[in-house]
């Protein structure tokens, strides 16, 4: 099952409220408070405000020190409370590249709330030798929470706390949870900073198209929304057709994002076969929630595409790229750009527009999708089976449809100047 930092911290709060101050419970709480201190230290080290060394960082740093002092040399207990807090601290580290200073402040306040609950367990079984450390912990907790009451984060700043993260456990049959977990994995592994290749983005688009085409919809306007969303994702692949970075080839291994795309595609297709033979939606009931992540995936892919030109690894045939004033001026001057040239952000405008359209169309589909348990008779068949088989072949082989740029070789940086304008050795095949 997918989970989020908020889910883990809320569950930890419930466990803390039920934990008795027995020796085992105190050992569990001491281990848990240590993990919370570790999470706070990660957040403080990256900054909680625009002012370096500001009061937010000082207060949270004191709380992290107080948590470490209260934990002492407590060993990992393996009990539920310490497991939950340890998992939350690990997720804070996983999302570390994506936090903003405002998001880290929101996370620090959420961790502080749990630290207060765990500190209450330690205070209930307070030992004479731990009195000063626990008093210090309570004062530091109050200081951070008062500051948070004065400067509360907004829901937009705290959105990463609710973002689901995938479970590493893979299921072997299609269920609503399997489809949801596969979509969560796809969103997680396409997040900014993962530096996806063109082939990996194509795999994500194929899986998103499959999910949209198979989403159970109402009989009136639902099929049109599903078809529009699926076609929008297909147009992203069409816009990417001229672009090559050297990844358009068969691969011996599959990156995690491609494995997530294959898992989503197979889970949805298997679920459609089960739903078509029964009266209820079965496994496809999980698609209603899963499709709500597709707009965020489209936005993440847009950020990925915007970073591609900086790598200087993208190339395409000049005649296949959109017309631009500088290239028209070269043609009017008697020069005709041919062969492979490097792609810049202007050449990627159709891709960015297609991703924006996919984001809007998928958002409309997620809003207009029927509730779970509605009639599954509107799930398309016939031509959809042929599209599904074609997409399955592309994902299984992890390749794209053959095209002229499929064998184009991306040059090494010392050879980049050789591919820029007309008169170069490479020319487009006729």
Explain this structure.
The chain has 430 residues and is mostly helical. 57% of the residues lie in helices and 1% in strands. It has a two-stranded antiparallel sheet with strand order 1-2. It is elongated and about 85 Å long. The two termini are 52 Å apart. The model is unreliable at 168-176, 273-280, 370-387 and 398-430 (pLDDT under 50).
Keywords for this entry:
430 residues, mainly alpha, two-stranded antiparallel sheet, 2 strands, 57% helix, disordered C terminus
Topology:
Elements lengths: L4 H14 L4 H24 L8 H17 L8 H15 L6 H24 L6 H20 L25 H14 L8 H16 L8 H18 L16 H21 L10 H4 L3 H14 L7 E3 L7 H8 L7 E3 L6 H20 L14 H15 L33
Antiparallel strand pairs: 1-2
Helix pairs in contact: 1-4, 1-5, 2-3, 2-4, 2-5, 3-5, 3-6, 5-6, 7-10, 8-9, 8-10, 8-15, 9-14, 10-15, 12-14
How many helices? The count is: 15
Gyration radius over CA: 26 Å
Alpha-carbon distance between the two ends = 52 Å
What structural category characterises the helix and strand content? mainly alpha
- Summarize the biggest pleated sheet: 2 strands, antiparallel
Task: Give the gist of this structure.
The chain is mainly α and 430 residues long. The chain is 57% helix and 1% strand. Helix 3 runs parallel beside helix 5.
């Amino acid at each position: 099952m997918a989970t989020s930092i908020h889910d883990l911290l809320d569950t930890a709060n419930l466990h803390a409220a039920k934990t008795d101050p027995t020796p085992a419970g105190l050992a569990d709480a001491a281990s848990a408070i240590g993990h919370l201190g570790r999470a706070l230290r990660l957040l403080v080290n990256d900054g909680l405000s625009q002012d370096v060394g500001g009061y937010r960082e000082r207060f949270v740093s004191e709380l992290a020190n107080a948590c470490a002092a209260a934990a002492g040399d407590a060993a990992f207990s393996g009990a539920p409370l310490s497991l939950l807090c340890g998992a939350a601290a690990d997720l804070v580290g996983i999302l570390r590249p994506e936090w903003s200073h405002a998001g880290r402040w929101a996370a620090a306040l959420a961790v502080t709330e749990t630290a207060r609950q765990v500190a209450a367990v330690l205070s209930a079984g307070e030992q004479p030798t731990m009195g000063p450390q626990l008093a210090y912990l309570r004062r530091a907790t109050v200081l951070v929470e008062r500051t948070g009451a004065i400067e509360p984060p907004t829901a937009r700043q705290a959105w990463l706390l609710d973002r689901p993260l995938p479970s590493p456990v893979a299921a072997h049959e299609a269920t609503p949870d399997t489809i949801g977990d596969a979509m969560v994995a796809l969103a997680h592994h396409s997040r900014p900073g993962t530096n996806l290749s063109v082939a990996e983005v194509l795999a994500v688009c194929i899986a998103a198209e499959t999910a949209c085409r198979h989403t159970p919809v109402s009989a009136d306007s639902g099929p049109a929304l599903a078809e529009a969303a699926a076609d929008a994702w297909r147009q992203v692949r069409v816009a990417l057709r001229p672009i090559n970075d050297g990844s358009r080839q068969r691969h011996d291994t599959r990156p995690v994002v491609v494995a997530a795309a294959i898992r989503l595609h197979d889970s949805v297709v298997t679920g459609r076969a089960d739903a078509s033979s029964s009266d209820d939606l079965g496994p496809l009931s999980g698609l209603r929630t899963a499709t709500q992540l597709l707009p965020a995936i489209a936005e993440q892919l847009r950020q990925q595409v915007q970073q591609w030109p900086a790598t200087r690894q993208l190339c395409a045939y000049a005649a296949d790229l959109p017309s631009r004033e500088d290239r028209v001026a070269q043609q009017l001057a008697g020069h005709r750009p041919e062969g492979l040239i490097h792609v810049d952000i202007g050449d990627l405008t159709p891709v960015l527009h297609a991703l924006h359209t996919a984001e809007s169309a998928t958002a409309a589909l997620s809003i207009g999708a029927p509730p779970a348990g509605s009639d599954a008779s509107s799930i398309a068949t016939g031509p959809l089976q042929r599209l599904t088989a074609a997409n399955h072949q592309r994902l299984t082989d992890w390749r794209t449809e053959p095209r002229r740029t499929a064998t184009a070789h991306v040059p090494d940086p010392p050879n980049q100047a050789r591919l820029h304008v007309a008169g170069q050795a490479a020319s487009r095949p006729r």
